[in-house]
Write a structure and sequence with these properties.
By secondary structure, the protein is of the alpha/beta class. It has helices at residues 199-203, 213-235, 237-254, 257-268; strands at 2-3, 10-11, 25-27, 32-33, 49-51, 60-63, 66-69, 79-81, 88-90, 103-105, 110-112, 127-129, 136-137, 151-153, 158-162, 182-184.
């Protein structure tokens, strides 16, 4: 076990791990380490604990959304915490080969691409945190096979499509997926179809709208009727006289004579 946590180490991790390395725990969090993870670390085939956390931790590990203190590193507690660094690029699909992994925390980085479907091979995984990255695409349905998963955070990425609904994935709240505008499903208030919007379709969305001919014909008929009645009244004096005479006859039949006289006076103005 090599524990160099909570120091002021700077620079890179030396690429000096020998073949047949028997290191089981490497704890370097709480430093100012930069650069890449050395490839020779792959020689440590018995490595169970790797903590390269955000280099400003206080002897804590972020797991299942909470920080907990580890008074000592347990060999049965297998986890990888690479959170709060500046890692770029894709999540390696080779992570799916770490069958004994219990906790994987890659949050608060600049990772891109899709979530590797190979993560569904981590049958013992209990905590998966990929939040606050730039991950794209759909959530792999292979994650449905993670039967022991008790914490999941995929929030604040650029994921799209329907949220898988199998097994453990149904037990998580919407907080596990917030910050992904393109996601939809039973966990979110937005209930979209499984089809991901195509920008080309949006550009031509107006062209695909159907015309309601019934409504259009009714509107044309209304405008035509108004034109037939109003235009003659405005432009034809003879039509106005005949119109007023018809109205007078109707009023005389309905209202008393006194009211009719008032109507005559009003129309004569």
């Amino acid at each position: 076990m090599l524990n160099l946590a909570n120091n002021n180490f700077k620079g890179t991790i030396p690429d000096v791990f020998p073949s047949g390395c028997q290191l089981k725990a490497l704890d370097l969090h709480g430093n100012f380490i930069e650069g890449e993870i050395p490839k020779s670390l792959a020689n440590c085939s018995e490595l169970e604990v790797l903590d390269l956390g955000h280099n400003e931790l206080i002897v804590t590990v972020t797991t299942k959304g909470q920080e907990m203190e580890l008074p000592k590193i347990l060999t049965i507690f297998t986890y990888i915490d690479l959170s709060r660094n500046n890692f770029h690029g894709l999540i390696p699909a080779e992570l799916g080969q770490l069958q004994a992994l219990y906790i994987l925390n890659l949050s608060c980085n600049a990772l891109t691409g899709q979530i590797p479907p190979s993560l569904g091979n981590l049958k013992n995984l209990e905590s998966l945190d990929l939040s606050w990255n730039n991950l794209r695409g759909r959530i792999p349905t292979q994650l449905q096979s993670l039967n022991f998963l008790s914490f999941l955070s995929l929030s604040f990425n650029q994921l799209v499509g329907m949220i898988p609904t199998g097994n453990q994935l149904q037990t998580f709240s919407a907080d596990s997926h917030i910050g992904n505008e393109g996601l939809s499903g039973f966990l979110l208030t937005k209930n979209c179809s499984d089809k991901v919007a195509d920008p080309k379709e949006d550009n031509h969305s107006n062209s695909g709208r159907k015309i309601d001919w019934t409504l259009l014909i009714a509107e044309i008929g209304l405008l035509t009727g108004i034109a037939v009645v109003v235009l003659p009244l405005v432009f034809s004096r003879r039509w106005r006289i005949r119109y007023y005479k018809c109205v007078d006859d109707i009023i005389i039949e309905i209202f008393p004579l006194a009211v009719s006289r008032k109507w005559f006076l009003w129309t004569a103005i």
